[in-house]
Amino acid sequence: MSYETIQFNLSEGVGTLILNRPDVMNALNRQMRAEITQALTTLSDDVRCVVMTGSGRGFCSGQDLGDASAATDMEATLRNEYEPMLHAVRNCPVPVIAAVNGVAAGAGANLALVADVVIAAESASFIQAFTRIGLIPDAGGTWAIPRAVGTARAMGMMLFADSIPARQAADWGLIWQALPDDEFAETVAARARHLAGGPTLAYNGIRQALTASFDNDLDAQLQLEARLQGQAGRSSDFREGVMAFLQKRKPSFTGS
């Protein structure tokens, strides 16, 4: 499928979604939001993992402030455009890695943080820039960030709008990993290939269980684990995993 504001490439089971407006640091406009949503909700069965990254020197600078349609009714834009995009990332049928290659600001940072795993180059940074223009964080930031780093750090990030370097973000637990720039692309590719060759049903069970754990008590979580484990235990991947273990070989998972 042809897109104007993003690129989508498939290789070895990895779908790479590239935010492609480098002249404006990949700022999000209406068309880009729609194209991200479409790309992630129309994946072929060949896609076993998605890597989302930015073109040029940044990941995403957030909302395109030159997009007059968004400024006209911010609430409608968030409900009608941002929410479907964020749900498309969160509910993607395969794991999503946000490969943050540079600055991730405002809604751009929160787009990355809603992914399953965030890997950043050490030169990257995360900025909740909203108060700089008199707004509150949106695009899921007030949901994702306190869950990752706690209320104190989330509040400081949002009130002061400081730039948080990737290494500090990793130390805080905001992201999974910060890598030297010269190792970034190779490591992301290796991580993505690992997930693309893995047990997709089990991965989805992990994603569901961790998300639900914040609202469940122990009994509810144990019941959910039992149900999801029952599904995984009936999968072809489980049978293959056990057989490979007994035969002392690498498993060949199919995601079924």
Automatic annotation (TrEMBL):
**SUPFAM superfamilies xrefs:** ClpP/crotonase
| Alphabetized PROSITE patterns for the sequence | ENOYL_COA_HYDRATASE (PS00166)
What GO molecular function terms would the record report?
catalytic activity
CDD domains, alphabetized: crotonase-like
Pfam families documented for this protein: ECH_1
Which protein family is it in?
Answer: Belongs to the enoyl-CoA hydratase/isomerase family.
Q: What is this protein called?
A: Short chain enoyl-CoA hydratase /Enoyl-CoA hydratase
Please give the organism: Paracoccus homiensis
